[in-house]
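## retry 2 of 3
previous attempt timed out at serialization; input unchanged, resubmitting
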Amino acid sequence: MNRFMTAANGGAAPSDGLGREDMTTVGFMLVEHFSMIAFSSAIEPLRLANRAAQRELYRYSLWSEDGRSCRASNAVEVQVAGTFGEAQNLDMLIVCGGIDIHRPDHRALQAILRRSCARGTAIGAVCTGTYVLAKAGLLDGYRATIHWENQASLACEHDGLEIGSDLFEIDRNRFTCAGGTAAADMMLSLIVRDHGADIAAAVAEQLIHHRIREAGERQRMDLRMRLGVAHPKLLHVVGLMEKTFAEPLGSQELAESVHLSKRQLERLFLKYLGRSPAKHYLRIRLEHARDLIRQTAMPLLTIAIECGFASASHFSKAYVDHFGRPPSAERKHAPTPRPVREAAAAVGTTG
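## retry succeeded, writing output
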């Protein structure tokens, strides 16, 4: 019987279905080009929880599509226990995604996730693994999150999903995170629910992780830090630009939003960012368009309209001027070929 649904010693399960005292078996489903930092941030808290408790709270194993070692996005190869289909009778499955998540169809993995879910297995994802869960229909009716760079593309392909921009989401027996070090915060939160704050705090100390971040904290660096600018009116206008790239506002509207003239706003942007408001707005729209081209199969015209361009020709010219190549070239690059597997990195399967 799935431990996420039944409390230890026959007691009533907590309402969130995630707290218990006995051992939890966890399977990490590694998708080719998975994010190493997200995977490491997810698995290490489990190992350290075992160490802190001086007993096996979590037993984990790694799996890949073909049962061969799986290559991360940083080209490190990780050994696995077997194929996705061999990951049987586990309490929790976590899909580890990374770059190029949209290229494979993931049908075999989706089928396994659905079958496991039907048996009561808790299903989670780190980084772009959320994309696989969404395609499998396992996030319908659940809150979820994904890396900020992939939010727009996921929302475009699955407009009915409740996709937020939080660091992580734990909604009943579904849990997703933005990736990177946010995976550690998500796993630490699960450890709190499983085994209490003391064990989680001991794990955080070992990770030199000064505090367990809350789920609702923002993913992206504060705009002030990203731009290296503290001027409140400029920050307000840039923030407005990032929210309205689909229907760009006019220069007059932007200036009036901070009670400046168009000329004053122009001087402000040139002084702090070295470019005009129009150039900065265009940059935001083009970078968003590049994310959609790389991460979705949306037609280029649809992407152009989504990013506020009136025509495909206008979009293409602006894209070439900014990136040095046409938007169609972004989709012509094949995935990086797999290297010879002569220096595979081994990762153990137990704590």
